[in-house]
Amino acid sequence: MGGSNIQKELTQVVEAPHPLIKHWVSVLRDENTPSSIFRSAMAELGRLLIYEATRNWLPTIIREVQSPVGASMAEFINPKEPILVIPILRAGLALAEHASSVLPCSRTYHLGMSRDEKTLLPSIYLNKLPDKFAEGARILLIDPMLATGGTIVAAIDLLKDRGVDTTQIKVISAISSPPALQKLKTNFPGLQVYTGAVDPILNEKGYIVPGLGDAGDRSFGT
Ligand code: URA
């Protein structure tokens, strides 16, 4: 009993305090930001959040390197343990855009989910996940808007069904709402969330307020 309480406390939400993160969130919020700029702001925000989230988390190896003036033991990212990046389509594509340039070794699996406008329930329209993930797989699950939490919870359930330990998942989001964060905390103790901002309100249509509107529509203009 005591153990599960301690585990719950391990669930972490990091609202990264960097001014560049605040800047890109503000660009995204502005309704006058055109689609092309919106998409690149989302990609920049993703780059910074991934950088923050992977601090002290990337597997490394040490080997000797000879520079032009001497030898040293040098640390590299281990190419045998790539980080698995899972963007939830379609808005997750923009937030995940720079993942492969931030991470020297990563592999991307796409997951397409949409939510019903009336019931707000998620459904899967594309699933490129393997049947089973390798033990210890480290996963960045990328969904820009954690609103009701229905989509992200369904996505994590899919990962759990495929053998993933939820303490090995980091969720990357642009803006989150308290109900979604509470759902994650209750369902997945030990999970970590890196977000650009936590906004207070979820309206009757399941949109985050003030938020940024529909992240997919604004990214792609369609
Ligand atoms: N999805 C979005 O794109 N925006 C929201 O505010 C909520 C869900």
From TrEMBL:
CDD domains: PRTases_typeI. Keywords: Allosteric enzyme, Glycosyltransferase, GTP-binding, Nucleotide-binding, Transferase. One of its GO terms (molecular function) is uracil phosphoribosyltransferase activity. Its cofactor is Mg(2+). Residues 17-222 form the Phosphoribosyltransferase domain. Coiled coil: none annotated. One of its GO terms (cellular component) is cytoplasm. Pathway: Pyrimidine metabolism; UMP biosynthesis via salvage pathway; UMP from uracil: step 1/1. Its EC number is 2.4.2.9. InterPro entries: PRTase-like, PRTase_dom, UPRT, UPRTase/APRTase. It comes from the Eukaryota. Pfam families: UPRTase. One of its GO terms (biological process) is UMP salvage. Belongs to the UPRTase family. This is uracil phosphoribosyltransferase. It comes from Carex littledalei.
